[in-house]
Amino acid sequence: MAVVRPREPAGQHHAVHPASHRSDPREPPLLRHGVDPVTGTPTNPLARTEPSVSMMRMARLADAAPGPPPAPHYAETVPKFTAWACVFLTDQDGRAVQLHATYSPSHPWQFPGGTMDDGEEPLQTALRECHEETGLMVKGPLRLLASVFTPPGGSWPYGTVGWVFDGGFLTPEEIRSITLDAEEHDDVRVLAVEDWQGLMPAQDFARLEAVMSARATGTAQQITWGWGDV
């Protein structure tokens, strides 16, 4: 329906007076103060906004919050080690079985063993390495005889940790069946402890004596071992 307004008399004009500015009650309060309520940015380029005291306090607390460093960062700050494991074998008379290494003039005679592979446990490493280096499947008691710590030295930038397990007593047939990996070892000998002394560096011989003592007494040894003249 159309609305009909009365016509004004001729010669009369409807006066229009500018209305005084009043703020729209529907206008958001923050907008009236020059700040967009959604983005928080000033709508007036001359307007200034200051962070609240509570926000600044929260930021300071977050920066100073105690707690451990992230695991990857912490891992970079601690010493690094490589690990190895080996098997101590003797004949039926208790004479030590050792292999002559082609790759280490400073440690020529060694127990069958080697470096731990990713995902292995120490005993698994010892059994695998013994089989690879001698062809033997060890059936001994496999109890721990010694743990060996070596600090960084020589050309190796890390320390090492190692474990020596009791591989038991080999029969003459088992000793004769030993098959060496020519890339790592070129001889195998079975000797009484006193006969080994002249063939080994002093610290290597001391380790042999400690391992033999551990088997005899049932008490595992803790050994610190050096690199020698690598």
From TrEMBL:
<dbReference type="GO" id="GO:0016787">
    <property type="term" value="F:hydrolase activity"/>
</dbReference>
<feature type="compositionally biased region" description="Basic and acidic residues">
    <location>
        <begin position="1"/>
        <end position="11"/>
    </location>
</feature>
<dbReference type="Pfam" id="PF00293">
    <property type="entry name" value="NUDIX"/>
</dbReference>
<dbReference type="InterPro" id="IPR020476">
    <property type="entry name" value="Nudix_hydrolase"/>
</dbReference>
<feature type="compositionally biased region" description="Basic and acidic residues">
    <location>
        <begin position="21"/>
        <end position="35"/>
    </location>
</feature>
<dbReference type="InterPro" id="IPR000086">
    <property type="entry name" value="NUDIX_hydrolase_dom"/>
</dbReference>
<protein>
    <submittedName>
        <fullName>NUDIX hydrolase</fullName>
    </submittedName>
</protein>
<feature type="domain" description="Nudix hydrolase">
    <location>
        <begin position="79"/>
        <end position="213"/>
    </location>
</feature>
<keyword id="KW-0460">Magnesium</keyword>
<dbReference type="InterPro" id="IPR015797">
    <property type="entry name" value="NUDIX_hydrolase-like_dom_sf"/>
</dbReference>
<feature type="region of interest" description="Disordered">
    <location>
        <begin position="1"/>
        <end position="48"/>
    </location>
</feature>
<keyword id="KW-0378">Hydrolase</keyword>
